[in-house]
Amino acid sequence: MGYPESLLAFRTLEEYFGKPFFGVVATELGGANTAYAFHIACQLGLPIIDGDPAGRSVPELQHSSFWISF
């Protein structure tokens, strides 16, 4: 049995960026978004980060996008 899709996506992003992530953040508060973030953090033993980019539930991705540079 393989990873659930949420964990597979998390691991795939880690592989893409070439470094392990140190925590998990929800893309918005509420609904399945928060549940997925908590599920991933729990399954991988990572901290959940209180850093929702919008601070509220929003209908579209551009409302909760933020820039991360490396």
Q: How would you spell out the order of helices and strands?
A: HH
Helix content: 25-40%
Number of structural domains: 1
Strand content: under 5%
Average per-residue pLDDT, rounded, comes to: 79
Strands, count = 0
- Looking at the structure, what is the overall shape? globular
Amino- and carboxy-terminal Cα gap: 34 Å
Which structural class fits the helix and strand makeup? mainly alpha
| Radius of gyration computed on alpha carbons | 12 Å
| Continuous helix count | 2
Low-pLDDT windows of residues:
none
Largest sheet: none
Protein name: DUF917 family protein
Pfam families: S-Me-THD_N
Domain S-Me-THD N-terminal: 5-68
InterPro entries: S-Me-THD_N, S-Me-THD_N_sf
Task: Walk me through what this model shows.
With 70 residues, the protein is mainly α. The protein has one domain. Helix content is 39%, strand content 0%. It has helices spanning 5-17, 31-44. The longest helix has 14 residues, at 31-44.
